[in-house]
Amino acid sequence: MIGALRRSARGTALLNWLSIVAGLIVWEAVARRLPHIVLPPPSIVLVRLAEGILSGELIIALLGSLEALALGLALAIVVGVPLGFALGRNRTFAEMFDPVLNAIYAIPPVAFVPFLIIWFGLHLPARIALVFLMSVFEITVAVTAGARDVNPSQIDVGRSFGARRLDLARKVILPAALPFIFTGLRIGLVRAINGTITAELFFAAINLGAIMNEDATRFDTAGLLSVIVLLSLLGLTAQAALRRIEARVLPWHIRAAT
Amino acid sequence: MRRLLLGLAGIAITLGVWELVGRRLGESLFAPPSAVVVQFGPQLFDGSVLPVLAGSLRQMLIGFGLAYALGVPAGVLMGRSKTIDALLHPWLSMAVVTSIAALVPLFILMFGTGFSFRISIVFFAAVWFVALTVYQGARGIEPRWLEVGRAFGADPLQSFSKIMLPALYPYLLISARIGLIHAIRAMVVAETFVVVGYGALIHNSGLSISTAPLLGLLLLLMVLGVGVTWMLRKASSFIAPWYEDRRSA
User: ipTM score here?
Assistant: First the structure.
């Protein structure tokens, strides 16, 4: 049984890689017939990516981007997690402010850009604000779901063993909601990475956004793609890393792969 | 009833706080709702806003329609075939984390800044989320249901149209909702970047002295998003009343 499972998991991984390789070959074959401005072949994109990393240009820009990313995400966690708990555990509060928050959430974050420029200018504070805006709702939604769906019988058990409100919050509700907090962090982190590059393109161009802008004015499609690939790989790696940490921290919680 | 009253109270409190803060900060920083109504109200009906929004939405809907037409079958195939899932999933995972804003300069080089650019951005933003949602629905179909069908002699076509399709109804609507929200976001990203359509209105109103018109434009987008969500939720409870939509996303 376990052997079969392992075989099928290995088969899936094999197919995954096969698909990636096949996709790259098709892309390469198609791109060789087209002008490189329209679609550069993956071989050139990979070379550009390697050059950018080895020359340090992309790495320095990426490190520069991390500042707004980290600050914006930290702010979103500090606001989103307690807000999520309040919405998940207090029904009156949730019924009052869920509609308002859902309505604000429905506004595309980029539409706030002119507003953020008025308030925060074109530099670091504005970038932090956009990263915050793009990640805070996702974190709040996930934490709300986690705090709301704590099994009531777990709380009852805690109560009958004499736990007080604070004990209940710390020892029952928090551990039960932790998987959802991790989900919120995972989605929030990806959104924060997207928010960072969005901010670097929509406010004053800087770091990776500046590199993309230069590539665009030089009609360097391969350069643009190399930055996009770098960012997507960063997002995937960050997600995988958080999954690893989650498995370490919450060994009792087995999550179905999505 | 209690829910409705509390919800209205929440909206009233939010508007009240906004009015107070807005008056404190002044119109140039954060116009209060009263100023938004007075300044944006007439604009809304003088033909400078709604036709532009309609034009933008028409293009968005073309991109979304293509994404939906392709994303739904892709999601069903991925959900029902392990092989197709294994082949498509790496690309889907990669695309889902990719920033739409980062794609904008790339798509401009590939497609220019016109019609095909706006449509392809919207398409790319929506198609993966539509596929992913339908995939989750298709994967969740219980093998037992299909076995019962087979036991009663259903051929593959019948078991698709009579068992799988009804099981997918709610997901068809959820995926439309999630896809449309992403499509509207992508429309705003693309239009604000190249300053065209509704995005141009947002961009230009950022330059005016009062923030009231800008806030009005944001509120209009909000009404649009909430309206779309509400309509598709209603449709969902009409078409698939057995499925209780508990997702808050």
Answer: 0.90
Domains by residue range for chain B, with CATH: 58-239 (1.10.3720.10)
What CATH architecture is A39-249? Orthogonal Bundle (1.10)
Token pair for residue A250? 């919450």
Q: Considering only CA atoms, which of A65, A73, A61, A57 is closest in space to residue A196?
A: A65
The predicted model gives B118-125 an average pLDDT of 96
Other Cβ atoms less than 10 A from the Cβ of B233: the count is 14
pTM above threshold 0.95: no
Q: Where are the alpha helices (DSSP H) in chain A?
A: 2-32, 42-54, 57-89, 91-105, 113-120, 124-148, 152-160, 165-167, 174-202, 207-217, 221-249
**Which residues are within 8 A (CB) of A132 and not within 5 positions of it... i.e. 6 or more apart?**
A72, A73, A75, A76, A79, A195
CA angle in degrees (0–180, nearest 5) for B131-A73-A171: 90
Residue B232 at interface with chain A, using a CB cutoff of 8 Å: no
Nearest residue in B to A198, CA atom: B101
Among the partner residues B93, B103, B248, nearest to A228 by beta-carbon distance = B103
